[in-house]
Amino acid sequence: MKVSLAYSIVLSLVLITFFTCAWKVLCLFWLNPKKLERCLRRQGLNGTSYGLLFEDVRDNMTMSKEAQSQPITPFSNDIAPRLLPFLHHSIKKYGKLSFTWFGPTPVLSIMDSDMLTEIFSRINEFEKPHPKAIGDLFVSGLIMIQGEKWVKHRNIINLAFHYEKLKFVVSATCSSCEEMFREWNKQSLAGEVDVWPELQHLTGDVLCKAAFGVTYSQVKRIVPLQQEQMGLTNKILQFAFIPGWSLLPTKMQRRMKEIDHKVSMILNEVLRLYPPGFMTMRAVHKTTKLGDIQIPPGVVLLLPVILIHHDPEIWGDDAKEFNPERFSEGVSKATQNKLCFLPFSWGPRSCIGQNFSLVEAKVALTLILQNFSVRLSPSYKHAPTPMLTIHPQYGVPLILTKIGSNSSVRI
Questions:
Q1: Residue 36, SS3?
Q2: Going by DSSP bridges, is the β-strand pair 46-47/98-102 parallel, antiparallel, or unpaired?
Q3: What is the mean pLDDT of the chain?
């Protein structure tokens, strides 16, 4: 009798556990996704249909593998089909406000300027999704943390990059470029130089010298993590120690402003065509109104920066061509005061390293062109590839020729 009772209890527990797990699996992989799909379609949104075989994931992997299997046309700026082939195809088919699926999770693509403004402004409602499985190990730090913890960390990092630190950016870049040029001179004797690894090293070295007074080689193991958390927010003034110097209408000042304006135009156009962060995501934890639609929890919002930057309806018929003159009157004029230029994100959570990186890029570009004539190597393959940021899949081999007999770095 006792054995029979015990058997019945165990069997009951097993059955309860089985049906509980089965119900949770059914909800996770069918009931909840179909409920979210009905919610989106009732609001007039189009997209792919959900299926238990995860067709979107399969198609995404297949199209990505095919797109990255070979380079694209040399000098073509139409890189979106290579970086995000499945998303590019889906948006062309279903529209700029449409959804696809990542497993059982609907992913709603947003390209509308007004909606983007809301998303980037309401940071406590539209948070970055946190992949628990790898998040704490791989993408933790200022980029992913939320709420009060983000405020605290942002304030700490701002203190680490006080205005006094900014004065060292130019000198640090000059010093790092000198070291880089010595390596380039050695390598160029062999005919070509892959500049991509050296430029990556340059970024880390300038950050270390300007912010911490050490070299990249001393801390290179932690620099990739620190690069997520560093930056500056003030404009560089090389002679800031002279009161009122920047306001004097001298010939040198006018020329410097003219050069800075032209370089800024070029960098803005490069960042438009090749944004480092080519996409970003947001999530909501309760039903949230966005524009005229209600976003239920469980839907991930995908903001395809690369597609926004290449949209002919925003930038004109030459959207995929290199035309720095579009920024001749500033970003606001070029974008017609719409939020459609997002190389460093936007709003309270915009990239803290924006000004730092632009200053470094301007100085490094000036020094490189002062010291070398540059042309692409015949072995160059145009193959931007999606990683955390856009990377050249096969490096950047260049033919470098030293200009004159100048062996020093000038600025």
A1: helix
A2: parallel
A3: 81
